[in-house]
Amino acid sequence: MITDILELSEQTQLQGQVIVIGSGIAGAEVATYLARHGKDVVLLESGREQFNPTIQSLNDVIFLGKRHRELNPNTYYHQYLPPELRGVSRVRQFGGTSNIWTGKWTPLQPLDFEERPWVANSGWPISYDDLLDYYHATAKDYGIGDVEEEAKRPEIREFRAKLSAKGLKLISFYWQETPTRTAIRFGEEMRQSENLKVVLGATATELKLDESLYRVTGVVCRSPEGKEVTIAGSNIILAMGAFETARLLLASDSQIPGGIGNQHGLVGCFYTDHPKHHRGLLRPGPLVHQFSKELQFGPKPRFSVCFALDDATQRKHKLLQHTLFLQPIYERVLERAWRTLKGQPAYRDGNGPVATYRVNFVTEQAPQKGSRIKLSSEIDALGQRKLEVDWGFNDLDYYSIANVLQLLTQKVAEVGLGTFDFGEDPPSLEGMTDAAHQMGTTRMAKCPEAGVVDTNCRVFGTENLYIASSSVFPTGPKYSPTFTILALARRLGEHLLKTTPLRATKLSV
Fold first, then answer.
1. Percentage of residues in the chain with pLDDT exceeding 70?
2. What is the DSSP string of 357-368?
3. Which one of 3.90.1300.10, 3.50.50.60, 3.30.70.640, 3.40.50.300 gives the CATH number of domain 1-144+180-274+366-392+436-509?
């Protein structure tokens, strides 16, 4: 059932075994998963089915450090989206930020979970093997191509071998034909479900605790129209992005000074994104001629590939993992005529002759406590304190980008992929944009002194509060966190199935 907060009467008493806050890709996944398995679930969403600029403005933040890209109808990003969504990285609408997602899937790899001695605060408290079954289950349910089978293709094996000889690795990712939009994928199921109630227009503003200050008993929600309700629940899942998840914990400070889960001052800290440069070109070399079909971005659905320095090279030079995507730019008529006149061969893939490749260079960011978000004294339309975002970098970030660029330039040329042309605009942290991959503000750790959630994504210091979000990522080496977010959400859903009594409560309106 889907309803709106304005449709709830003063006599409404809404409660569930599980309250999920956020209808994006993690929230929709865990809410429907639990409802299918008999749990009574309430899903709260700040936005409504139609985009609302007033509600969207609740995302406004104050930038103290490097700025993020913002709404720009003429931006390079998201040209396929309506003008009101172009350039934004967080969306308050039914379906959340899945409404602007590009549909690119790639899992983390074993090294991505490991502690790297040269990267302070690195290492996940879980391993690749802990998520492997959930990657497989999610891939099956969402129709994602089999990455393991893709790796066995003769062309991929040969391509990988040639790159490996020069210290490069090939990473496969999967493009959906139509990116998953959770409002579309799950909308009808949500409307028909007897166990799931979706409440739109309900912005969570505070978490309420019992007298022990250990158990969350309810979620206070407000609407732009002034409606306020409190939803009671036995287990609460924060399935918002890294900004809003940390914001709600910090803002829930009426009972615990400093906010819930913040006993060691770590909520909002270790904020990372993937700084991104997309203005370079690659003049293709002979290896591109041999493997040009593997570099296609279309037609979708399909596998495509990107590149990075291999694990041994990263360890040897003590580098972060930076990823190189090559996007084909096809010849125009005059370019084709000029090439033909000069007698040069065409670099042709399945879509036509390629003139050059756009270089999308995406960097991993080192986790550091000082890169953080915190509450401001400035108030938004709901009376909430706005966020201040202090996105910053450390010496390893600057060292890594300079050395990775040098090594990639050398190795890409040596292996025959081609030569870079960055013109007068080489990649630099100052000139890069964010990639809309907010991570790390409630990082997962083995103990509360090192993070905000445990290995089951339960907030330290609470009994029944969980987080399903990229905010729990200790590090984010691999571009596109969505696959891992979903694997963690499915893992959390399975954990709650095992630990929550069936039908302990019943939804009532």
1. 97
2. EEEEEEE-----
3. 3.50.50.60
